[in-house]
Amino acid sequence: MTLSIRLTHAFAGFDVDVDVTAPPGVTVLFGASGSGKTTLVHAVAGLLRPDRGRIAVDDWLLLDTDAGRNLPPHRRRLGYIFQEGRLFPHLTVRQNLLYGRWFAPRDARTESLSRVVEMLGIGPLLPRRPGALSGGEKARVAIGRALLAGPRLILADEPLAALDEARKAEVLPYFERLRDEVSVPILYVSHATAEVARLATTVVALRGGRVVACGPPAQVLADVAAVGARGASSVLTARVVAHDADGLTALDTAGGPLWLPRLGALPGRTLRVRIAAQDVILSRDRPSGLSALSILSGRIADIRLGDGPGALVTLAIGDDRLTARITRRSVEALALAPGQTCHAVIKTVAVAPEDIGSGQGRDDGGRLTGPL
Amino acid sequence: MADWLSPAEWQAVALSLRVSFWATLVSLPFGILVAHALARWTFPGKQILNGLVHLPLILPPVVTGYLLLATFGRRGYVGQFLDEWFGIVVAFRWTGAALAAAVMAFPLLVRAIRLAIEAVDPKLEQAAATLGASRAMVFLTVTLPLCLPGIVAGAILAFAKAMGEFGATITFVSNIPGQTQTLPSAIYTFLQVPGGQGDAARLVVVAIVIAMAALLLSEWIARSVARRIAGT
């Protein structure tokens, strides 16, 4: 299913003008607050009527201002996962889960309560009320409620932003399962690079109400125009090889072995690993005598000099791209040029658990049967 | 106990209870509708509706009674219409007393329910809509259950107001024993007779007991409903 959004809308002192087509999978709307992401999601949900626009899921038209069509929210067949959960406090978890299903047409009731409950691990919560749940539990119930409404499109508006780090780590794997096990397309709003790297099939980067970049996460996250030099990062595909006794996990990439702090994933599993550009050191010769364990080799694909003292050097490592943020002085000192072979040094401890997700979007078949 | 009050006095107490009960019950759906409209809808003339609803609160009750008599009396437009088409006469009947009580209690009813509806988070209603609930279903499944304590409080308040209504009632339906003589009218009648203060005092005790009972009941219901909603 393909979601296409074209709209213009003017607020006081701010206007949004976008034209986006999202292929199947998870499309992440990425940007700082005030970039227009919430406007887009609200327009898709029917909570905001844009000045002009056309929104469609495949050939199913939700809004077309030129044709005078504007479906009310309750007829759009969406599953909206709100930041605050917005569970109904007077209903039990079970009643909350089944709320949307009540209104769904019979042929849309494809997900069974038992499957969703099992997938989200919320069985013991069913008789409780939302008032007695933790933040992470509420977030999981909200996912289930949206899913059971039999939606054609799932919207998630910064569903993790209100949670602390531990709760984020608890809930994020469930979104990965949602992506991998459910065929419904997902429009996911976020300003966190780690979530983008782990979840996105497509990233739409927004700034000031305009689309500044659109494409696969590895491409957009390395795009300075989209994320800024400080936010630039890469997404590497890596396969788990073994768990070592000293607490490290060995992974295999196209550029050589990569060691990360111990992961829960089983050997053979393919993962996505986000590496911030500023955590990568480059070396022309293969370095020795370093404390850093992971040294990946690749070929320089691109060198972009910034306006300031910085530069972004991108290595091609197999099909992946790894970007390093270094100084212009170093680029000159090492006489770096496209086509050269170069070594990237990565500190094992620079990669946080939130940067590692289950692989998807490649032919790895490495689907998780349980959260990491 | 039964002969503590005379049959006529019992009659006044029973009539007051009946009048207040029906006045509250019949005005409740209208009260919820108007409160919802004032809290959540936007429409032209909203402030006028708001003013009309609150008018009985600020007008002298005698004026409200007069207006009811002019409208619903045998010669009033609505009164004539009801009489000719349905054979319903409210003037100088207990139903008229219930109408007067309902009109006088309506502002209190609407006010309490409106505050309760406004306290319901519109974000929850939005969430219900995205899950496929039409406006009516959002109201029935989310708004109504969440503002139930306010509705209960409003109904009890309206009942208590109806029990005490005097000015509009006596103007509209007079003070006929067994027909329209409510508790306050009976107390008033006793006080018009020399030496009637003792009789009046007994009815005053009855009025206080009923009011206290209503208040405690409303507290209890509101608390148990609120506990159920908070859901721990």
Write the layout of secondary structure elements.
The complex is a heterodimer of chains A (372) and B (232).
Chain A: E1 3-11, E2 14-22, E3 26-30, H1 37-45, E4 52-57, E5 60-64, E6 69-70, E7 78-81, H2 93-103, H3 113-120, H4 135-148, E8 153-157, H5 165-181, E9 186-190, H6 193-199, E10 202-207, E11 210-215, H7 217-221, H8 224-231, E12 233-243, E13 248-253, E14 256-261, E15 270-276, E16 280-283, E17 294-305, E18 310-317, E19 320-327, H9 328-333, E20 341-346, E21 356-358
Parallel strand pairs in A: 3-9, 3-10, 7-8, 8-9
Antiparallel strand pairs in A: 1-2, 1-4, 4-5, 5-6, 10-11, 12-13, 12-15, 13-14, 15-21, 16-20, 17-18, 17-20, 18-19
Chain B: H1 7-40, H2 46-58, H3 61-72, H4 77-86, H5 94-119, H6 122-130, H7 135-146, H8 148-164, H9 167-173, H10 183-192, H11 197-230
Helix pairs in contact in B: 1-5, 1-8, 2-5, 3-9, 5-8, 5-9, 6-7, 8-11, 10-11
CATH architecture label name of the largest domain in chain A = 3-Layer(aba) Sandwich
Number of domains of chain B: 1
CATH homologous superfamily title of the largest domain in chain A: P-loop containing nucleotide triphosphate hydrolases
Let me know the largest β-sheet of chain A: 6 strands, mixed
What separation lies between the terminal Cα atoms of chain B? 45 Å
Average pLDDT number of chain B: 89
Report what the structure shows.
The complex is a heterodimer of chains A (372) and B (232). With 372 residues, chain A is an alpha+beta fold. Chain A has 2 domains: 213 residues, Rossmann fold; 126 residues, OB fold (Dihydrolipoamide Acetyltransferase, E2P), CATH 2.40.50. Chain A is globular. In chain B, helix 2 packs across helix 5. Chain B has 232 residues and is mainly alpha-helical. The mean pLDDT of chain B is 89. Chain B has one domain: MetI-like (MetI-like fold, Orthogonal Bundle). Chain B is built from 11 helices and no strands. Classes of the chains: A alpha+beta (372), B mainly alpha (232). At the A-B interface, strand 7 and helix 2 of A face helix 6, helix 7 and helix 11 of B.
